[in-house]
Amino acid sequence: xxxxxxxxxxxxxxxxxxxxxxxxxxxxxxxxxxxxxxxxxxxxxxxxxxxxxxxxxxxxxxxxxxxxxxxxxxxxxxxxxxxxxxxxxxxxxxxxxxxxxxxxxxxxxxxxxxxxxxxxxxxxxxxxxxxxxxxxxxxxxxxxxxxxxxxxxxxxxxxxxxxxxxxxxxxxxxxxxxxxxxxxxxxxxxxxxxxxxxxxxxxxxxxxxxxxxxxxxxxxxxxxxxxxxxxxxxxxxxxxxxxxxxxxxxxxxxxxxxxxxxxxxxxxxxxxxxxxxxxxxxxxxxxxxxxxxxxxxxxxxxxxxxxxxxxxxxxxxx
Length: 318
Prior knowledge:
By secondary structure, this protein is an all-alpha fold. The chain is built from 19 helices and no strands. It has helices at residues 12-23, 33-39, 46-59, 64-73, 77-87, 89-94, 99-116, 119-127, 135-139, 145-161, 169-178, 181-190, 194-208, 211-218, 221-240, 244-258, 264-269, 288-291, 298-313. Helix 2 runs antiparallel to helix 3. The radius of gyration is 22 Å and the shape is elongated.
C-alpha cells in the first residue's frame, strides 16, 4: 500500500466536511458526497454509508467524475475500502459468504470501480496494485450467488481499468500482461454465470485487439492454446445457452487470433465446428424490432467469413 495517495492541498473541503460531520452527523440520504466520505471513518456507520454512496453513483452519474477524485484524494479512504475487501477473504475458503456480506463488499468495489473509470485516478489504482486484492475473488471456483456477485463486481472494476486508448493505456496494458489479470480473466470465462463470462471475455477481447496484447497471447504455444481452449469451451456453453453479445465477443477474439499467420494452422485444428455449421444461425438473425427485417447480423457473419478465410489461406506461412 506504499503507493496509496497522500492528501494534496486541495482537500481542505474534505477536511472541513470531516470536522462538520464530527460535530453533527448529517442524515445519510441528504448528506453531500464529501460528508459521506468523511463518515466512512465511522465503522458503525460504514455499511450504510457505502450503500448510500452507491445510490449517489447510480442516481447522479454526472457526479461520478468528481466523486472519483474525492474518494482518491481523501485521507485513508482507499485503505478503508481495501479493509472491506480483505474482511471477506476468510469466507471464500469455507463458502460461507452471505448475501449481506456480499452486498457490502460489492458496494466497496463499486467505489473502487468509480475511481477506475476516471483517467486521473485510474493510473493511481494501477500504481498502487489495487487489482491484486481482487485475485482471491477471481480464483474462487464456487458459483454460489453471493460469491458470483463479488466476482462480477471485481470483473467490472478490471473492465473499467481496461481503457487502453487513453494516454496511460500502454502502461495499463503492460500491467495486465505482466500480472495474473489475463489468465484470471480466462479462468472467469469458464467460471460463473453469463454476466461474469461476458465481462471476462470483453476484457480478453480488448487485450487481443491491441497489437502488444495479441503478440503476448501468440508468443508461446502454451499461452496461445490456453486462450483458444478457453474460447472453445465458451462456444460449447453457448451452443447450449446462446447469448448473442457474448458470441460476438468470442468471434471478435477469434478474428484477432486469425490475423497472426504463424498460429493459423493450430487455430484451424482447434476451431469450434459450431462456428462453421448452423448451430448459431438463429441468434445471428437481427430481430424485427431492431431493423424491421429478418436479415442476419452482418458484422458477426462478416467476421466469421474473414476468420475462415484467414485460417485457410494463411496457414503454413511464416
